[in-house]
Write a structure and sequence with these properties.
364 residues, alpha/beta, Arginase, Chain A, 8-stranded parallel β-sheet, 8 strands, binds zinc ion
């Protein structure tokens, strides 16, 4: 087991008032240490991804732009238009100092995790700073500059793997899906909230992949107020069967924890009780299908103190095979369903499961 981390990750900082606070990653690693779980893993430092590695997913003109913006270089008028078109005129993705270096470090950290697993130095690896799944080929989006999920998946694919990416962030994994939409050797599964006006607005069941890759993009949508039981039901009805059908050689998971009731940017009502369960599922599937090869990445999570460290420590405890150490110390809480939503959520989740199966022409 490998944990990819050092404090240089804190440089991925969009500013004091931005929802994505880099200290959440530091707090998670501190809790992993406090619970005594860090001793079961090798600590690996991240490194910056090279332009060639980032180029597996992003265009060179975009990488050059990110570098110039983060170095405070004066831009020509066409470059200003290019920067706005690339997403940097928004509050979500403000330009920050050393933007390229800090973003390339996170993508490189995910490669370090993927490399450790690919080379057999670790069965499982976790990069809690990773999971930046919204970045597109030529565009920053949703707090994400480089899409480390797609970069590590492409890096592993180049080394002959069939890669399955399972994204359980509350937001659709749109950048990752777009990267591999026509690639039959990478399966992307995203479980997310889908409702009017909710970011990013994609992730419908009929988004199944293009051409030869039809059937290798899968989307399970949850309505607002979905709580633990229907969320886990959706996961169990969809993820294991799709993975068994695809037969990946490596599992990559984006583990955003913004599904939680306390998350300020979304509307689901999950608790930290899903984490030991989902960790166990991923763990079992990695051993069943991939000889254990499992690369876990972080993702969203904006309840910085209350949720992120607890969720990712519970996940990590499962990765190292000591879930009891975390659950005993962290005592995961749970929330009852919202009475007025209870009757609505179950049928909506059942509908989503059926819609996904119909779109993929597949039955459990
Ligand atoms: Zn294991
Ligand atoms: Zn998210």
């Amino acid at each position: 087991m490998a944990l990819v981390y050092d404090e240089s990750y804190l440089a991925y900082n969009h500013g004091a008032l931005h929802p994505l606070q880099p200290r959440r990653v530091k707090l998670a690693v501190e809790l992993i240490r406090q619970t005594g779980l860090a001793r079961f893993a090798d600590l690996l430092p991240p490194r910056q991804a090279t332009d060639a590695e980032l180029g597996l997913v992003h265009g060179q003109a975009y990488i050059d732009l990110v570098r110039r913006l983060g170095h405070g270089e004066e831009l020509t008028r066409p470059e200003l238009y290019q920067a706005a078109a690339a997403g940097f005129a928004s509050d979500d993705n403000p330009v920050f100092e050393q933007m390229h270096e800090a973003s390339a470090l996170i993508a490189g950290g995910s490669i370090v995790a993927g490399e450790a697993v690919h080379e057999g130095r670790a069965e499982h690896a976790f990069n809690p700073a990773g999971g930046l799944h919204h970045a597109m080929r030529e565009m920053a989006s949703g707090f994400c500059v480089y899409n480390d999920v797609a970069v590590v998946a492409a890096w592993l694919r180049e080394r002959g793997h069939r890669v399955a990416v399972v994204d359980i962030d509350v937001h659709h994994g749109d950048g990752t899906q777009a990267t591999f939409y026509s690639d039959p050797d990478v399966l992307t599964i995203s479980l997310h909230q889908l409702s009017r006006g909710f970011f990013p607005g994609t992730g419908h069941p009929d988004e199944v992949g293009a051409g030869e890759a039809a059937g290798t993009s899968a989307n399970l949508a949850f309505p607002p107020f979905t709580w633990d039981e229907p969320w886990l039901r959706g996961f169990d009805e969809v993820v294991p069967a799709l993975l068994r059908r695809f037969r990946p050689t490596i599992l990559v998971t984006q583990c955003g924890c913004d599904t939680h009731l306390l998350d300020p940017l979304a509307n689901l009502r999950c608790s930290t009780r899903i984490w030991p369960v989902v960790g166990r599922r991923f763990h079992d599937l990695a051993h069943e299908l991939c000889e254990g090869r499992w690369v876990a990445l972080g993702g969203g999570g904006y309840a910085v103190e209350e949720v992120v460290p607890r969720a990712w420590t519970l996940l990590f405890a499962e990765m190292v095979g000591h879930p009891e150490l975390a659950t005993a110390q962290l005592d995961p809480e749970s929330y009852p369903p919202l009475p007025e939503a209870e009757e609505r959520v179950w049928p909506a989740v059942e509908h989503s499961i059926r819609a996904l199966r119909t779109a993929l022409d597949w039955r459990a």
